[in-house]
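2024-03-11 09:14:02 DEBUG pipeline.ingest accepted 1 chain
2024-03-11 09:14:02 DEBUG pipeline.ingest length=287
2024-03-11 09:14:03 DEBUG pipeline.predict start
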Amino acid sequence: MTLPILISLGQLIDTYIRWLAFSKSESPHLKPKIFTYSALWSVASIFLYKFFFDSFGINAATYKAVLMLGWLPYFLISLKQINGLLQHIFILSMNVICSLVQHTISTIIILKLWVYNNATEIILAEEIGYLLLFAIFLPIYGRYFINLLPSREFFAMRPIGIYIAILPLVISSAHIIRLADSVLVHSDAERLSRIYLPLVFFFFYRYILNAARNFYDLQKLERNKQRLEDRLMVLKEYNALTIENQKKFSVIRHDLRHSYNLIYAMLDSGNIEAAREHIRKQEEWLK
């Protein structure tokens, strides 16, 4: 029962690490929902893992199967509460890289410091070391994951948003495939390569993220340029309409001036009826 509890606890902590990436952009009211559902599943998974280990034994294959598939319910719970599949894939992939390195460091430590009689003892000690490393690295994870997630605009850009989302998964996929076997302890070279993984990834991540940011800024400038051109066009049309109206008003003023002169001339000559008829025609014209 000890191993299922440790694994479930580690997966629950992973859920908390992934939430940190969304904590700045999402409502804090989502946090209780996510962790309530995650905690309920964590309790249920303890009994599920116990049944699985009792049925198939505790060995490298069953242990890896639980680690590689156990994240899925927690992922779906978070995805249900927070929209944005690409963001979730990106954060999950980053969490996978950190977990991979953490498991590797834990394995190296226990193999160097202790001698074990069987695979079960190694697996149990490795999982304990994994949780202890969580306690050590948690402040670093907190600062890193809180500022990790790029803005939604990056993921909304196609296809570069997709590239950013799957980048960590692509880089770590070779190690994940290598681990999907029944070997419990791999060679020192393979373990060291997993430690080098974050360094390689963060180099590419920073480069692509900067390229994406520059691309987004360029698009923003293009949109602003288009808005300015549209406004300039509206102003030109307004100016042309104003000039046209001024010409029409000038013609109307000329016609009114001429009409007034006719009325004054008719009144001066005593032709009042003609003046009235002229005014009547002007009224009809104005209708």
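2024-03-11 09:14:41 DEBUG pipeline.report Residues 227-286 form one domain.
2024-03-11 09:14:41 DEBUG pipeline.predict end
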